[in-house]
Amino acid sequence: MPVALEPRIIGNAATGTLEVPLLGYLTVQESDTIADLVSADESAFTVGARIASQISVEAEISIAEAFKIVEDAVAGRTMEPEADGIRLAHAARIEKVAQLYASIGRRNTTAAATAIIRHRLQQPEWGIADTQALPNALREALYLLVADEQRSEREPVKPPTEAELKKLPPVSGRRSKPTGKESSLI
Question: Does the model's pTM come out above 0.70?
């Protein structure tokens, strides 16, 4: 396992501080914990698609058009007058999707913070309710740490420099000669 990076101190005197080891990636346990904690509820996509399906029937438009209206409304994007009329006619339904998106964002943040506390701070019994009792600034700082670790995972591996290559032991280049005998592994 690679050597841990310098730990990050998060929080302040008002929230309390945590010293969290940095690895440059999320472990499988951390990723699995996050996935397990957020998988319990219906996804925003599913709810949005169901509402878009209802809108498409009532407004006599394709489900793709209805889903785009729902997405644009939730994102606060401007729409063509006809699409905006459909948005207004179905505002209550679309608002449910917007609320769900916000709720999912909070749930993801809480799940990520919970996973880091459980695994990196070695508190296996730490739960969602414990994280929800933290000051919001501390929870957000833990979430940003997770985002940074995920971003680090996606950074391309830098090829070795010429100086580093010169430090490697030379390779002989010789290969063993075939004996002509068949492998006994068949």
Answer: no
